[in-house]
Inverse folding.
């Protein structure tokens, strides 16, 4: 019963596919950033795969290819990158120690933004880390330069 809206928002979000965070991501992007109907790129670790990790090299090329398609086909000019606290991609795939995870995520967001600018040409890129405290999710902006 949801009406279809044909207008494009000209933005995409790249974030982790962990379903526990999905509603918070959607609410933040729609209401916090004013991006209803944004294009979604969700996969384990989200933007981590765009940060030149050898463990995610295959995903990196695929995601850049798909993101380029969305930019061209949907005329996107903005990309939002979101990492989240205690991400299993970091702890299991990258084997990042818990005490180093947030600093690694921040560095990965900067690296992912650089790779998107270089490979795809989108210049409006924002980055955030989602954190949960007492059951409430907040979003902290990350400077990506």
């Amino acid at each position: 019963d949801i009406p279809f809206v044909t207008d494009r928002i000209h933005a995409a979000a790249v974030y982790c596919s962990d379903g526990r965070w999905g509603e918070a991501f959607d609410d933040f992007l729609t209401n916090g950033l004013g991006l209803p109907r944004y294009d979604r790129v969700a996969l384990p670790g989200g933007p981590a795969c765009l940060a030149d990790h050898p463990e995610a090299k295959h995903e990196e090329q695929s995601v850049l290819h798909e993101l380029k398609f969305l930019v061209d086909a949907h005329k996107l000019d903005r990309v939002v990158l979101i990492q989240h606290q205690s991400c299993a991609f970091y702890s299991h795939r990258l084997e990042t120690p818990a005490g180093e995870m947030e600093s690694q995520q921040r560095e990965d967001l900067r690296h992912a933004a650089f790779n998107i600018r270089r490979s795809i040409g989108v210049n409006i890129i924002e980055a955030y880390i989602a954190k949960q405290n007492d059951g409430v999710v907040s979003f902290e902006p990350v400077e990506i330069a």
In short: The mean pLDDT is 97. The chain is about 40% helix and 20% strand.
